[in-house]
Each structure stands twice: as structure tokens, then as C-alpha cells.
Amino acid sequence: MRRILLLAFVAITFGASAQENSGYYPIYSIHDPHFGITFGPQVTSFHNDPYDSEFQFGFFIGGSLSLPLSKRIGLEPQLLYSRKGGKGDYYINNYYDGTIRFKLQYIETPLLLNIHTRSVVDIVMGGYAGFLLDSNFDYSTPYYYGYGELDNDQFEKVDFGLIGGIGINLPNGKIVFKYNYGLSDVAKEGNAYLFLEGAKNHGFSFSYIGYLK
Q1: Ramachandran angles phi, psi of 11, nearest 5°
Q2: Does the CA dihedral 54-58-62-66 come out positive or negative?
Q3: What is residue 119's DSSP assignment?
Q4: What keywords is this UniProt entry annotated with (predicted)?
């Protein structure tokens, strides 16, 4: 996973450098308001969790509004549907018993600040708040596989955290590579708290924003 993330970062950096050297600039103006559709894959997990969870794939989709504040700074509020979670092995009496995957669905409201450089690259930073819609899980053992719904009351209803990344402006949109770092606990009580005591969301996302004319 670290190699994949490193390769993605190198590819984005190389692409931005090549575009800058070729004199390429976006067709749309970053100094005009734009509404767009954003979507993409993400890999998410939990940090500070008791069983060292691993990343699993998810996705998000929603709307994005670009609001220029000056020649160098733009504000970008978003409204997203996001599928997050994490997976990890669990043990009973010190013996491996299986793998459990938590799948959490949120409505998220990121608020991003875009700092425009002299090339097509933007520095992206900000924060987000997420509101839990649904929670479920699946598990596997050496002998069987199962899945089920979780009680939403066992989870915190609101999730919030920080965002940082880079964006590359394209002719009709933008590619953004971000890291989300959750600041609030995921679980509140019950079985969810038993597995996820102290766990917080975090993950990497790769998104495309297509601006509508």
C-alpha cells in the first residue's frame, strides 16, 4: 500500500511538472465560480484502534462549488456521499479467529481552501464533518463467512477531521489527491466500542472534479 501511495504521489508531481514546463494552463478560469461533480476511489482505515486495522477500498460521490476569494486563494465547499471503514484480524484466547470489515456510510461536508501556485498545481487544505447514515460489517474465518447490520446508536453520529493534499487543474476540471485525518472517535458503546475503542477514521482519496459550464 505504501508503494502504491508513493507511486501515485510521484505520478501527480511529475504530471504537474510536465504541464508547467509545456506552458499548459487550464481553459476554465480559476478566478470564476464553478459548480462541478466530484467522485473517486478511496482507501480508508482506522487509526488509534486496538487491533491495528488495515486499509480497505471505498468510494465517494457528490457536488463541489469553487468560489474564488482572490487571485491566489479559492474556497471549495462540497457535499459528498462517502463509504469508509477498515478491516483487521481479531483473536480469541490468543488464537486467530478471523477477519472483520467495518463499513460505514456518511454524508460529508468538506470545506477546502485552494492555494493557487504559479503552475497548474493547487495546495489543498481544510476540514470536514461527516454524518453517519448506516453501518454494517462482514467477517470471515477459516470455516465460514458472514455479514450483518450494526446498531447505529453504538457509533458516534458525527465525524470530523482535517484534510490536506494537492490538486492539478485540467481544461474542464481538476484532479485532487487528499489525505483525511479523523479527530473524533468512531465508536461510542456496545460491540462497536468493544472492537473500535479509540478508533478514528483516516484515509487517502483520488478524485476528479468535472466543472459544469
Answers
A1: -65, -40
A2: positive
A3: S
A4: Signal
* pLDDT, tens digit (0-9, with 9 covering 90-100), for 109-145: 999 999 988 888 999 999 999 999 999 888 777 676 7
The C-alpha atoms of residue 12 and residue 204 are separated, in whole angstroms, by 14
CA–CA separation, 167 and 19 (whole Å): 13
Q: What count of other Cβ atoms lies within 10 Å of the Cβ of residue 57?
A: 11
SS3 70: coil
Q: Where would I find the beta strands (DSSP E) of the chain?
A: 34-47, 56-68, 73-92, 95-108, 111-116, 121-140, 145-149, 158-170, 173-185, 200-212
Residue 207, amino acid: S
Those residues whose C-beta lies under 8 Å from the C-beta of residue 7, and which sit 6 or more positions away, are: none
**Beta pairing, strands 111-116 & 145-149:** unpaired
Cβ–Cβ contacts within 10 Å for residue 211, how many?
A: 23
Q: pTM for the whole thing? A: 0.80
Beta carbons of 88 and 97 less than 8 angstroms apart: no
How distant, in Å, are the alpha carbons of 20, 73, 76, 150 from that of 135? Answer: 44, 37, 28, 5
Domains in the chain, CATH or no CATH each: 2-212 (2.40.160.20)
